[in-house]
Write a structure and sequence with these properties.
By secondary structure, the chain is mainly alpha-helical. It has three helices and two strands. It has a single domain, classed as Arc Repressor Mutant, subunit A. The protein has helices at 6-20, 32-39, 43-55, and strands at 59-62, 66-69. GO terms for molecular function: DNA binding; DNA-binding transcription factor activity.
């Protein structure tokens, strides 16, 4: 079975947390440093996962403030 790239695994986990309501609309995601520690990876796969989620419209990045779950109302 092929190994799923870290960026896709992380993106799917965050997607699942958004879908379950663990991260609700407008909620701030954990910091980059916290996500790196949680997933046990370097910064690059976490950044890539967040970019995937931004492209999907699930999260929004705000310079200097963090990444937030998009309000999909």
């Amino acid at each position: 079975m092929p190994r799923i790239p870290d960026r896709q695994r992380i993106a799917q986990d965050i997607r699942d947390k958004i879908a379950s309501g663990e991260y609700g609309p407008g909620a701030k995601l954990p910091s980059l440093r916290e996500l790196i520690a949680h997933y046990g990876v370097s910064a690059e796969p976490v950044r890539s996962a967040l970019l995937i989620l931004q492209a999907e419209g699930l999260v929004e990045g705000h310079q200097g403030k963090g990444v937030f779950v998009a309000d999909r109302s």
